[in-house]
Amino acid sequence: MLEAIHELANWVVAWAYTPYGAMALGILAFAESSFFPIPPDVLLIALCLIDPGNSIFYAILCSLASVMGGIFGYGLGKWGGRPLLLRMVSESKIRFVEHYYQKYDVWAVAIAGFTPIPYKVFTVTAGVFLLDLKRFILASALGRSGRFFLVGTLFYFFGKPISEVIQKYLNIISILFVVALMGGFWFIHFWSKKNMATVPEPRVVAVTDRRDN
Questions:
Q1: Which residues lie below 8 Å from residue 2, measured CB to CB, with a gap of 6+?
Q2: Angle of CA points 110, 21, 62, to nearest 5°
Q3: Which of 25, 40, 129, 179 has its CA 20 to 30 A from that of 50?
Q4: Residue span of the signal peptide, if any (predicted)?
Q5: How far is residue 6 from each of residues 12, 92, 176, measured CA to CA in Å?
Q6: Euclidean distance between the first and the last CA atom of the chain, given in angstroms as a whole number
């Protein structure tokens, strides 16, 4: 599994060395927000490495496409995500995620957008649980742009000093992104399993038929 994802990551990076690198970045950022497994960071870094002067442009493109992809994922969840979730995970885990959305609202989306936690999980479930769309878009924009602009800004201002290092270790960096991706899925699984007992069960009110003797 890890090897297959690593090969997929190498295929993604290869687009940076074609005339369609920017287009591929936009498509990847959009797709990763709802269904594609590889984060766009690997291609973003490769493009910024090749052309540091356009790093801010790449960060803007990646952020906008990712937010649009998040809206698409939200739509998938809103118009058909619940039956799909029921096929993939148990009802108790769905209740667990819903409980945390009720507790933290869209800030869970913002955190997922900035961290290695799989963003697509939060975009689809946000639609399933009908989070406010405007606030969802705002949280997505904050989380995703914060993450991608961090990369773009570093390359724009310090491109030459850090390019040599990243060029030397680009393959290792792509592996680390794959490991972070797998770690994000593991974190969600472990987090839900550990805290499942804290999710309140639905209240059942017993009705007693009381008759006068």
A1: 178, 179, 182
A2: 15
A3: 179
A4: none
A5: 10, 32, 10
A6: 69
Give the C-alpha distances (Å, rounded to integers) separating 99 from 95, 103, 148, 192, 202.
6, 6, 29, 11, 11
- pLDDT tens per residue, range 16-60: 889 999 999 999 999 988 888 788 888 998 899 888 899 999 999
The 3-class SS string of the chain reads CHHHHHHHHHHHHHHHHCCCHHHHHHHHHHHHCCCCCCCCHHHHHHHHHHCHHHHHHHHHHHHHHHHHHHHHHHHHHHCCHHHHHHHHCCHHHHHHHHHHHHHHCCHHHHHHHHCCCCHHHHHHHHHHCCCCHHHHHHHHHHHHHHHHHHHHHHHHHHHHHHHHHHHHCHHHHHHHHHHHHHHHHHHHHHHHHHHHHHCCCCCCCCCCCCCCC
Average per-residue pLDDT in the chain?
76
Provide mean pLDDT across the span 107-114.
Answer: 79
The residue ranges of every structural domain in the chain are 2-198
> The whole model's pTM is what?
0.74
pLDDT confidence band for 204 (50 / 70 / 90): very low
- pLDDT digit string (tens) for 158-196? 876 666 666 555 555 555 555 555 555 555 556 555 555
